[in-house]
Each structure stands twice: as C-alpha cells, then as structure tokens.
Amino acid sequence: MPLFAGFDLGGTGLKYGLLDRRGSLVFKGEAPSPPAINELIALFGQTWESLKKRDRREIRAAGFGFPGIFDLRQQKILQSPNYPTLDGFPLRPALAGLIEAPFWIDNDANLAAYGEFRCGAGKGVRNLVLLTLGTGIGSGIIIDGEIVHGTCGFAAEMGHLIVNAEGERCACGSRGCLETEASAGPIIRNYRRLSGSKEKLTAEDVAARAKKGDRAARRSYDRAAFYLGIGLGCAVNLLNPQKILLGGGIMNSSGLLLPGAIQEARRRCYRASLACCSIEKAGLGNDAGFIGAACWARDRLAAPA
Ligand SMILES: [Zn+2]
Questions:
Q1: pTM confidence score
Q2: Strand 278-281, strand 243-247: pairing
Q3: Distance 267 CA to ligand 1 centre (A)
C-alpha cells in the first residue's frame, strides 16, 4: 500500500508524518523550524529524504501546509505574519528541486480543517468549519467535501471576521476582528486591565485562576466567549455547517469558553440553522495540519485532472 507525506510548518516547529491510503498514521515527527529561508528549504529536503528511508513502501505524493496568505495561482505565500521569511518566496520551484513525487501546497489552517474532515472529529461530515484558537485564530472551511479557497486562495479567514466594530486594531489593518477579541492575547490583556496585574501570564494561567474563582479571570474568559459566540453565529448563518470544530491551546479550557459562546451564538443566528450544527472540540490537536496535508495530497492525486 503506498504512503502519503504531510508537512505542517508552524512559527517554531515543523510537524510531519506519513499516512497510508486509508489515512492511518504510519509515522510522525517534529523538528524546530529555522527562521532563514535557505535553512528552512534545506530542512524540507532532509526531512523528505529521512521519510523515504523510514519505510520501504513508496511515498506517492506529499502535501505542505504553510502559515499565511497563500496565493493559489502564483503558488506562493504573499504574507505570513508569523513567518515573514516566506513572504513572496517562490515555494513551488524550491520544493520541486527536492521532492520528486507530486505535491500540493496550501494554507496550514485549510489543511488542518481537511485533516479533521478526513480523519478527525469531522469524519463523515460534508460541511464543517475548523477554528483554531491560540495566539491567533486560524480557520478552514469545508463545503461539500472540498476546501473553500475563494478566487485566489484567501477565503476562510474567520479570525478576521469583525465581531466588535469599535474593538482593538488588528495586524490585518482592520479592528475588532475575532482574533483581537477572542484569542490568547486579549484574554491576557483584559485580565490585566480588570485585575490591575502586571505579571507575565499565559492564557492558561488566566484559565487556572478563573477555575479557582478569580473574578477578573472569569470575566476575561466570559468576554472572549461573548465575541467568539458572535463569530460562531456569523459562521452558522453564512454557511449552515453541520459541525463547527474548535481546536488550539485555548480549548484546553473549553469549559470556560464553549457554554458562553454557544449561548451567544444562539442569540445571533437562525435557530433552525444552529439546530443543524454541532459546536464541539476538534479531534486531532496539533497533528491536524500534517494529517490534512497528507490526506489532501492523496485525494488530489486520485482526483480527475
Ligand atoms: Zn484582523
């Protein structure tokens, strides 16, 4: 049975692995991701060679997930806030010099959604949304079993859905995006503002305090849940999905977020549409990206040209 390789580049690490045709995991690994582009490309080459030696079965195709705005037509990342060395770099020719099998490149969050759709909590679901809540908010949308790309590949940026017209400025140029209201940064900032704390904290620290009864911490999570709920309501009205899956580090404290977010979503969208939709935790954790990349390559290879 042939194998399929998947790669998922993050701000600090490259996750990769091999799947068989049925989507079963054969091997997975991880390496630190260097900031310089030539070292990064060399890392892809080394990892590819090591994967080929790992199993005597042939690797039939590969998929690559990159963070940032990926232009499908030009096959390059136009802008990557978390990996600026990728900006405008011609990825396809660089990888073609190293990878002799057919390969596909896409945005990392799109491929994570595809991973959940094929192998995770979205298995058997034709219409789904994945939101990854962490330092930022990544998202991918699957409709009728296909990744929603839009015209040039820039669709499904749900992290930049405006949920608070008067909210904080966002790196995307807008203000009050889901990402500036309901990711780790605003949870920490709002806790500091409400409590007067000057400590260096993570969103997990704030969650731990909320669970112990710290009111400022609880209110900071309630605020994030409120804006997350507005975003979920928009997704439900726009797409009528069967599932919205929520992943990322912040979902380790899902009990602090999900009930409030679902309650707010209920106020913001058609009940009939929400009644069709299950809002729940994603299934594959940090592996969703490379698993989705491998599944995407497998399915593109099998698809009629
Ligand atoms: Zn934004």
A1: 0.95
A2: parallel
A3: 24
